[in-house]
Amino acid sequence: MSNVICVIKFNYPSSYICYLAVMYRWFGVQLNPQFMGIDLKFFFVRAGMMGWLLINLSVLAKSVQESDLTQSMILYQIFCAIYIFDYFFHEEFMTSTWDIIAERLGFMLVFGDLVWIPFTFSIQAWWLLGNKVELTTAAVVANCFVFLIGYLVFRGANKQKHVFKKDPKAPIWGKPPKVIGGKLLASGYWGIARHSNYLGDLLVALSLSLPCGISSPVPYFYPIYLFILLIWRERRDEARCAEKYREVWKEYCKLVPWRIFPYIY
Ligand code: NDP
What we know:
Blueprint: H1 2-9, H2 12-27, E1 34-35, E2 38-39, H3 40-65, H4 71-89, H5 98-101, H6 107-120, H7 123-130, H8 137-166, E3 179-180, E4 184-185, H9 196-209, H10 221-245, H11 247-255
Antiparallel strand pairs: 1-2, 3-4
Helix pairs in contact: 1-2, 3-4, 3-6, 4-7, 4-9, 8-9, 9-10, 10-11
Bound molecules: NADPH dihydro-nicotinamide-adenine-dinucleotide phosphate (NDP).
The site of NADPH dihydro-nicotinamide-adenine-dinucleotide phosphate (NDP) has 24 residues, from helix 5, helix 8, strand 4, helix 9 and helix 10.
Protein name: Delta(14)-sterol reductase
Main location: membrane
GO molecular function: Delta14-sterol reductase activity
């Protein structure tokens, strides 16, 4: 806040310096800083994911203690546990993602990892503690289906890109990959939309809220936030790739016109 006031009060050169100071703190300066041999980006993400799991487990313990363990709580807990353990199991895939290759480590990432992830991604669990939801069998099956499809697309797309970066000749869905300009993968999930991995993640996020029913928008905070974040992220990534790959990117866009949602966006 004081930085913002400072920008308003000072004349042009000083305001500009203040503006830069705010931006550097917010977005950070170094891309992959290390402290005593520890990669700080991975350190903070791990802490955030563990915090999310611990909060979920605390809420689960509370509902068991109060003999109030519902079907909705079980569904939410299982989906989240799979998603979080999957992160640690496939952490290597993170090395080819935007956060690692393009985002600098500043307040935004650190706050996001240590506060935003554990405390806001677990809102559904908090909400379920104080609200009863009756789910029909059809709703439970549909919920599991959304999670499964989302998880397969999310994990599959991120894995395909990671495998491609390591070995551009590795088969995708059992066939030789379609490659544009020797650099961009245009088959598998990456031939359906330019960010199918975002679509998968959004479906997973939705499936974490569906156990809460549709009586309140509160438990839908996470999918709504993720939707906004990923649309913004996709725009920034698009600009970065257009700048980096130039003609090759144009060719990829022609071949794969959909950004995230096939036939919609
Ligand atoms: P991506 O993993 O999609 O990484 C984008 C980069 O991949 C591009 O900059 C480019 O980098 C490369 N790339 C893009 N298209 C191709 C292609 N066709 N072939 C080869 N390389 C390509 O984005 P993110 O890092 O943003 O997302 C990773 C995952 O993390 C997603 O599933 C996302 O949903 C999830 N996520 C979740 C969040 C949450 O809060 N739950 C927040 C943010 C992300 P290069 O220069 O290396 O080619």
